[in-house]
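Collaborator request log, item 7. Partner lab (contact: R.S.) asked for a structural prediction of Glutamine amidotransferase to inform their binding assays.
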Amino acid sequence: MALTFSPLLPWAVIGALAVVAAVLAALGFWRGMRGSALRALALAALLAAIANPLLIDERREALSTVVPIVVDRSASQETVERTERTDAALAGLLDRFSAFPQIETRVIEASDDPDTDTPSTRLFSALSDAIADVPSARIGGAVFLTDGQIHDLPGPDANLGFNAPIHGLITGRADEFDRRIEVIRGPRFGIVGEEQEITLRVFDDGAQAADAPPADISVRINGEEQPPLRAQPGAETSFRFNVPRGGANVLEFSVAERPGEVTGANNRAVHVIEGIRQNLRVLLVSGEPHSGERAWRNLLKSDASVDLVHFTILRPPEKQDGTPINELSLIAFPTRELFVEKIEDFDLIIFDRYQHRNVLPILYYDYISQYVENGGALLIAAGPEHASEASIALTPLSSVLPAAPTGRMNEAPFYPRLSEAGEKHPVTRGLEGAADEPPHWGRWFRTVEVDQPRGQTVMVANDDKPLLVLNRQGEGRVAMLLSDQGWLWARGFEGGGPHVALYRRIAHWLMKQPELEEEALTARASGRTLTVLRQTIGDDPGPATVKYPSGRTESLPLAEASPGLYRAERRMEETGLYEITNGDLTTLVHAGAVDAPEFKAMVSTTETLQPYAERTHGIVTRVAPASGSGVTLPSVLPVNGEVRVSDPSRLAIRMTGETVLKGIDTLPLFAGFLGLAVLLLALSTTWWREGR
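Returned to partner:
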């Protein structure tokens, strides 16, 4: 109940009237006039009526005390034990707080930001956002249910927006330990065949770090096992290797899980190095000058990464015109140097319309066969001579050739077409103009007929006769283009054709570029978006299996994007190393940043929240019992006024004194009949006294 005024006139006017009334009353008393006291009371009553006094009665209701409970749902909390303890502790807290109707709990689930590539535990940011609409006086305390690995700590002396205890309930055990491996330094690019070095480190965190035994590191490069490494935890370990191939090379390092460690999700690390071929050495041997010779030469010379050695046989042994050799300006064909001494230095050998005319000793063809069997690449661009008695298919080279000529030429105009396998094969798939019928390119006019070839026939001539045959032979590869008229496309005949794309793909397939493998499983990640590609020349490969960093597996359907190419894309909810498997093929990819704070440390700790608890008189305790399962929770202690001391066994909550106004009752003292009666009484008394 309170007294207030709602004046009928401005206070300045009332003040002036009060002065006049006081002067009149004083004058009356000074002159000793009868009834002066009654007149003074009447004037006072009139002034009080003008001031309009009111009695105010406010109806208020006590507000609840808000206690936010911040639940850590980050990746480091996703172990089975911690998840179960977190859920059990949250349920127990809500049950204990429910015994106090004046306390209102707010559960804040703080998980990783799905839009970030570097996940981290941001509990204080989540708390600040959740209580932005609550006055600081109503916050009775904050409870963090976490493993203690928090990455947005504002500092113990920072202003959190409220003055109440901060409590930490830690979900991990005190004796936890964890082993992890990280790539400290490593190149992103390397020249194929040259040595590179990667620096690794094995970390042992937690209770058993001091007496950690040495770790054996398993190494795989592009899925192939390498000799293991021996590493001392905490010390840097170097791994040297030669870059095996061009394109992406995936290096996987893993250490075995120690019994009882927190998680095995960080026991593997992956590093991708892009292999760059410094110079591709190509030997092009043309049997004689012809129209198609320049097409091959121009293509290879236009590539800055290709070192081309080109010889054209202008004066074979049977061509004798009587000119002395010392008067010729021709360069002698260095057969021994090329095919014996330095044959292993070439990445690709091309025989362009070459025929056996005793330029090469017969033994050298056997050297070329061994070169292919040991991993070399050979391309035969055949013309009419390949069907003659001088064909190189009648030499020891025949052991590596995928098709033998029948001795006949097919001389009829035709449109080169993709075979069923060619529509799927990465060398010919998607060639510009191939989707039309007839194909949207010019015709050719002759091919070499061959027996049923080995390998894949990816292009055919008329009547489905083989035109381009690709085959793996031993560790090497062989391609046969059974026509010498690709130059018609280069000259733009009947609109030309995709000769550059075709020739380049053939050469790169022969040199084992990973993106042109017939059977391949690749994966790449852009942030957390995972893209899986499966190339095959067979039937539908079925779904892929994805193994998450947390260890769980999931089937990932692959949809046909084009013939022979299956694709899947998905936004992944976890950050870390994924293993994708389809049939016998396996690949690894890291989604998100490899140095994400969330995986730097997985061992629970009480140290991060301890300074905040000490400053605000809160507590930090573990909810996991010393032995057995379940959780142990402290009791709740409501405190009126400021919390000055902490109780290690109870969660002190500062109860708020805030209220909300529900209604106001107002009683005017000089309004209505009561006010009229007082004024009439005062005036009547004055008049009566004057009448005496």
